[in-house]
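The methods section describes the discrete structure representation at length, but only in general terms. The central task, working out the structure tokens from the amino acid sequence alone, is never made concrete. Nothing conveys this as quickly as seeing an actual entry. For illustration, here is how one protein appears when written out as sequence plus structure tokens:
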Amino acid sequence: MKNRLLAAVATVSLGVSLAVPATAQMKIEPMGALRPDQQQYFDLYKELVETNTTVSSGSCTQASAQIAARLKAAGYSDDQITLFSTPEHPKDGGIVAVLPGTDQSAKPMLLLAHIDVVEAKRADWEREPFKLVEENGYYYARGIADDKWMASVWADTMIRLKQSGPKLKRTVKMALTCGEETDTAFNGADWLAKNKRDLIDAAFALNEGGGGDTDGKGNLVSQSIQVGEKVYQDYKLVATNPGGHSSTPVRDNAIYSVAAALTKIADHEFPMEFTDTTKAFFAKAGAARSDAMGKAMVALSQGSTDPEVLKLVNSDRYFHSLQRTTCVATMIEGGHAVNALPQKVTANVNCRIFPGHDPVKIMDELKQVIGDPKIQVSRAREDKPLASSPPLDPKIVGPMETLAKKYFPGVPVVPSMSTGATDGLYLAAVGIPVYGVPGAWGDPDGNGVHGLNERLNIKGVYVGRDYLFDLVKTLGNWR
């Protein structure tokens, strides 16, 4: 989605600022020669990454067809694969695959990922954005992390389960969709939830939003599980004016009015709040640190209102956002001539709303903060569902933590709420709990996600793949 860099980073890393001395960490070793099964996965990963799936010139429909061909070659029948698109959006298609379980009384699980990517301008990149390049222990390409790593791992998992087993009690479904990165485009997850609910029906879904963080020095210092996310909402501010000649200015100026409104919003602080997940995050992530910030995080989770504790924790912009609703100006447009008073000025304010709050109520609060009835405030979109937080279910979170001890020894696993947004909100809206899983890891600089020269650590690609395969097998065998 546009204007959400931090949320983009969250596909690999929730932005948890643990890049400081911690009580436990795992040294990241170089990647050795690929096993035959890893080479087979790499071929799938490479094909998906090198298929352009931008909204401007790419085709998710083509990428989905390529995945379908691989699934059929692995033994899936036509009735186990559904390719979908709409006449209005023929290139924004997706795929759903179903692997039946042995126990029909066990409700299915769903593997969700998006295959569309953010635009990539070749002139700005050091490397060809739609060609997988291996360099200095990293894979480079647009979508290498967001979200084609997870999409390729899910497709590979479905193939491995079909080819060599083991047969799972629970039916496993996979949905790879388009439209997550472009808010106003056709969204496949939303379409499935509204039109093919039975096809994707599941007890729970695994999605992007979790992942690991390194210290930027070759050590993995945390893994996170996304349990819930904020509500994404854009608000439109509009000021109109009769205008006039710029040689005879007046105080009543549409630009000044919107500027004053945005300044008031910038100075407004929403109150501090917690969910069970965020309270657990501050307690566990804080305990994993050996610095003053860690102590402050633990104190905050225990209810401290010490001004010094609050000041220190809020000095980290992610921690600050994790505790409250945030609103920020992201776009402004206005005026019609350089020598004329502006007749209309429009601004976009992007809010990430803490769970449990109605976007209409937040809009009313913004109106009160602005305090100017001449500024029209409205929701830019009114059709998106409200994100809801799933429970910290030990039957789901427990195996994630247990397997992490095997694949990421010594690294704390931290439950967290995403400050960004994922397609998980569409599934949650129809009653399917969605969890962002641990796996591959990102560096403190964000790995170029949504930016230039997007990359992913090669070791993390394959360790994360093995972790997720075992996780699917484990979750697939309990009722």
Q: What stands out?
A: The chain has two domains: 5-229+387-475, 231-379. Residues 458-475 form the longest helix (18 residues). The radius of gyration is 23 Å. The chain is about 35% helix and 20% strand.
